[in-house]
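BUG: 3D viewer hangs when loading the predicted structure for this chain

Environment: internal workstation, default settings.
Expected: structure renders.
Actual: progress bar stalls at 90%.

Input used:
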Amino acid sequence: MLTASTDISFLQGLKLDTATLLLESTPREWLLNKGKYQIVVRWQQGHLGIGAGESEHEAYARINIVATDKNRMLKDDPIEFNEIKTFMNWSLDDQVCLDL
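Structure tokens produced before the viewer hung:
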């Protein structure tokens, strides 16, 4: 179960424009779009990192760990995007998703 490790209120409840799975293996990464902002979501060894910026480069430079799952830390189990979406209270039109 994901547990917030920092204040994530500024990222919660977003209506995302698009979401794309970039890396399926470790680290698992998704690139999201919200208006003029790029959001990078990275999952690796029980840690959820999120970075946001006006460019993909800026978003990668700003990735911070926002949540952890202690049960997945040792096993490095993958996570599905829908679990992250639920945890962050994000909404997304299913027609604009690519291989989530």
